[in-house]
Amino acid sequence: MTSLDSTSQPVPGIPDAAGAPAKQIPPAAVARLTLYLRALNTLLAEGVERVSSDSLAEASGVSSSTLRKDLSHVGSYGTRGVGYEVQYLSRHIAAALGLTHDWKVAIVGAGNLGKALARYGGFESRGFDVVAIFDADQMVVGNEVGWLRVSDVADLETVLHRTGANMVVLALPAAVAQGICDRVVAAGVHSVLSFAPVMLQVPEGVNLRKVDMATELQILAYHAQRAQAPGQTA
Question: Cross-referenced SUPFAM superfamilies, in alphabetical order (predicted)?
């Protein structure tokens, strides 16, 4: 899902051959790198070994020049007339995005959204292991969601420590989101994805991304309205 309102910062690229830190990758390029990785993984599944920049750009919905510029941030330039080796480029982008690390995700909120996220099978294939789900409702605590058992949010810090969770997803009402976010950060988790319909405040050094589906729908409505108006294009 696309985050419209976030505190995302540029991320480091891959160090050069001498071990020197790479330049920061701009956030917009990071977002597009995820598209390239998805396209490359599809090609891998189809048994494709090499791909041209034009074909990869088309599959990702960007221009060839944008693709080449983005890939230059991770030190991959391809070979003229040959293109990119799909498996190598996939590994290279995954490393730049941090997907070679062990990411353990905890979900706070076992409502409809939280349960749907916990049951989503696509996280594991992309390097994310959902290790815990929490709720405050005692009628929900102890129930099974997929292979997980819902933990009491009162035990948040203990379970985060026990499971080694290093990412947290907040699927919470606005009224309680900030308090839970504060506890998550205090417990040492510095990567937070929030679906709560409220602006959260986090300390410097904490990566917070906010997914606002209502805002996304409003933007879609704007473009749909323009597309329907005489003489207008989306």
Answer: NAD(P)-binding Rossmann-fold domains, Winged helix' DNA-binding domain
